[in-house]
Design brief:
Layout (H helix, E strand, L loop, with lengths): L1 H19 L2 H10 L2 H9 L9 E5 L4 H9 L9 E2 L5 H6 L5 E5 L3 H6 L7 E4 L4 H24 L27 H28 L2 H5 L5 H31 L8 H23 L5 H17 L12 H6 L4 H14 L4 H34 L1
Parallel strand pairs: 1-2, 1-3
Antiparallel strand pairs: 3-4
């Protein structure tokens, strides 16, 4: 047993040396866990920021001016006043995401209790800003009108006070969510690429024949590639969390870093095995890339890192349970966002271990068959 472990260790060291001699792969790892994390976190926003707003003020009252003044940065740009006949042209040209049309006698009708209509035109091609921004605008309009009514007496909604407390992300900032999920997605992509490329590189360079004449088993070769490439990704992801996410982007990490590392190691075993399994069906890196790309896209988009699993159709939700990324995302979100401990995340960890064992058994059988073909 000790001799086998020593063999697996030495083969893993060989993998690390091969990776060190591949500048393209090294640059990919460095870029993916630094610049890619920062640019996605700062450039891709789910919240409303600097949305363009126009106001058609047909009332010219104190209330209509108060509504325009209440629309402020950073959610919105200072509103631009336009005429009613300019609405269609402005929306068609995409100059404004929102156009608020305040009708004549708006303030007088509000004070008289007539509940007048106020129109908000929304450019829904900007889906994220349109949906979230509309909720912001409704709140601004409701508060402004309510303040005006309270000057003359109790407002109609004074009977109920709604107090909202946002846990784990009190400012509802997407910059707190995006970088951590990007680290998770990059772990999946790079692990599959590195482990698959390690096996294909052996075939393309002819070094697989050297391994076949050595007294090593196929499982030893698999485990060496898994631990070596997995270790690189684990170290890179931890450094990315500490330096880029927590240091540069100033995103607070609530949970245990050691528990995150343990969870990542377990996930690495499952996802690296998948990378080797995919590689056994291909003969070159272009083939591997074409086969791995759709699998990785589906895994990342439907892992729960972009949209909640509960929002998917039931059949798709159940089908994605065989993907290790689903359980990894659930565990990491609980650990890093909500500060959960092992007593909370043990279930997804057990499922990860079971999926990893299943993938390893399938990949080992396929790996043996591939090496047997190469021997023949």
């Amino acid at each position: 047993m000790r001799a086998r472990l020593a063999t697996i260790f030495r083969l893993g060291i060989k993998e690390l040396r091969s990776l060190r001699a591949d500048p393209v792969m090294l640059f990919l790892v460095l870029y993916t866990f630094t610049i890619a994390i920062y640019t996605v976190a700062t450039g891709s926003r789910f919240d409303v920021h600097d949305a363009a707003v126009a106001v058609v003020d047909e009332d010219r009252s104190a209330l209509s001016r108060a509504i325009a003044d209440a629309i402020r940065p950073p959610q919105f740009k200072p509103p631009v006043e336009i005429a009613a006949h300019e609405i269609d042209e402005a929306m068609d040209n995409g100059r404004y995401v929102f156009v608020i049309d305040i009708p004549p006698r708006f303030e007088a009708d509000v004070l008289a209790g007539r509940r007048p209509d106020l129109q908000i035109n929304v450019d829904a091609t900007a889906m994220t800003q349109a949906g979230n921004g509309l909720a912001y605008l409704r709140g601004v309009l409701s508060d402004t009108v309510g303040d005006r009514l309270r000057r003359d007496g109790p407002a109609p909604d004074d009977a109920v006070t709604v107090i909202t407390r946002a846990r784990f992300n009190p400012n509802l900032a997407s910059e707190w969510f995006t970088p951590v999920m990007q680290v998770i997605n990059n772990i999946t992509i790079l692990t599959v690429i590195l482990t698959g490329a390690a096996f294909i590189r052996e075939r393309e360079h002819g070094t697989i024949e050297h391994l076949l004449v050595m007294p090593v088993r196929p499982i030893d070769i698999m485990l060496s590639k898994i631990w070596a490439n997995g270790m690189v990704i684990v170290i890179a992801s931890v450094l990315s969390l500490l330096i880029v996410v927590q240091g540069v982007l100033e995103v607070p990490l609530a949970g245990s870093l050691l528990l995150f590392i343990a969870t990542t190691i377990l996930y690495e075993f499952a996802i690296a095995t998948m990378g080797l399994l995919i590689a056994t069906f291909t003969a070159s890196m272009p083939q591997f890339g074409l086969l791995a790309l759709p699998i990785l896209i589906v895994m990342n988009l439907l892992s729960g890192s972009s949209t909640p699993m509960e929002s998917m159709p039931d059949w798709l939700n159940w089908g994605m349970q065989i993907s290790p990324s689903v359980h990894f995302v659930a565990a990491v979100q609980a650990i890093l966002y909500r500060g959960a401990g092992l007593d909370v995340v043990w279930k997804p960890l057990v499922i990860l271990a079971a999926i990893g064992a299943f993938y390893f058994a399938v990949a080992a059988a396929r790996f043996r068959a591939t090496l047997s073909t190469l021997r023949g």
